[in-house]
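Sample intake sheet
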Amino acid sequence: MAVRDKGNTLDRIIRSAESEFSIKGFEGANIENIARDAGVTKQLVYHYFRTKEQLYRATLETVSEGMVIVEQAINLAENLPPREAVAGLVNAIIDDYILNPSYAALTLDQALHHGEHITASSRFIPTMRAAIDQGFRPMLEKGIKSGVFRPGLTPELTFWMIFHLATASFLNGKVISESSDIDVASEEGIDRWREATVDFVMHALAA
């Protein structure tokens, strides 16, 4: 029972921390707010996590664990033709950001800090490597071999170009909306961004 209670307490702290960090960033986040939202004392937070930075790293690790992109990419590569697989990957990335609003905020916060909280031992690094090596690389190579995609594409670079294009409406939504009169935060705007991204990627990869 004690182990279960500790696990529940840690889960509440991490969930509260994810909300606080995604709203205020690392610099602006307040441990007292996190403790209050989690229903624990500030002292207990520091008992489990010695510093705010340690809690932030733990939060990023938990978020990384929740990413389903590896399983989705592998499943798409194994079960769909290359074009449909890549289109499915774009949709999976966008859907993941829709379902997890904190992803965009934490991504921007890490960009602000030059990724200093994502260490070499972080689960995020092997997660993304696996998504590329086990999922995207096979679908890209299959497409090149079958003549659907043009040769000379580098899996790592191509994956990250697709990833950043797919997530741009979440990371730069305000600027895009204000400068284009297309509300990319709305359901209709997200659908337009999704369709445009898939179309752009298909033309970029086409043989």
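Comment: The two ends are 59 Å apart (CA to CA). The chain has a mean pLDDT of 86.
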